[in-house]
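Methods: holo model generation. Sequences were used as deposited, without trimming of termini or removal of tags, and paired with ligand SMILES retrieved from the corresponding compound records. Each pair was processed once, and we did not select among multiple samples. The sequence and S-adenosylmethionine SMILES for this entry were:
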Amino acid sequence: MDQPDQTTHFGFRDVPLGEKQTLVNDVFHSVASRYDLMNDLMSGGLHRVWKDIMINTLNPPKSDAPFALLDVAGGTGDISFRAAKKAGAGFHATVCDINGDMLEVGRQRALKQYLDDRVSFVEGNAETLAFPDRSFDAYTIAFGIRNVPQIDLALAEAYRVLKHGGRFLCLEFSTVEVPGLDKLYDLFSFNVIPQLGRAVTGDAESYRYLVESIRQFPRPNAFAEMISAAGFSRVSWQTLSGGIVALHSGWRL
Ligand SMILES: C[S@@+](CC[C@H](N)C(=O)[O-])C[C@H]1O[C@@H](n2cnc3c(N)ncnc32)[C@H](O)[C@@H]1O
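and the model returned the structure below.
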């Protein structure tokens, strides 16, 4: 059970554990309508490449064989849409996110792309998923897990809802280790991104949080240990773009 005085990070601030989710929700309510545009502007389109690498790694079957993906913190549905376009007729994705505004943008995108029969949207918390045990073939979470207050609970839930032989994949910002690139990345992150956020969404603070939260996230080896501790086997990771992003993988065996 949570201790009343337990704290956690919200960006560079320490906040009571029980308050983080409300603060995170405020961030994504504020940016939802401009979220996809901001992703392109902030990453120069690179987020599309990272997401495609995640989908290629997932490699959903191209056949009629049933394949159920749970895309947690799926927001506006990007990962699920990319997977649905690559997969066969047996594919179905469930986008689960705690924020109704992000999901509503996703629902509209699904309709526009004629993917509404293959991708469904469910409001829910990664820490307490409302899905039966062993009900999904794969679990993805992209740029979501660092926003979840209790990551160990989310990992335990990922393990619980995956079938035996199911795969866990997590794409998340990581730690730039390339000398020179780290300084440039810091300059860009702390100066350009909040200003871009202000110009496009009128909200610099939300983007300051997003940048700060990246710096608080565990390094790839430490995060891999957390994934193993949740019960996953064959845990591995690869870093992309000089460590800007890491893709972690684990199996429920
Ligand atoms: C940066 S967005 C990522 C969206 C999408 N996966 C993508 O890659 O474009 C992070 C998402 O995490 C969601 N989120 C934050 N805390 C959550 C939680 N406890 N459970 C489920 N979703 C959560 C937010 O609402 C937001 O939509």
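The pocket of S-adenosylmethionine is lined by residues 21, 24, 28, 72-75, 78-79, 97-99, 102, 125-127, 142-144, 147-148 (CB under 6 Å).
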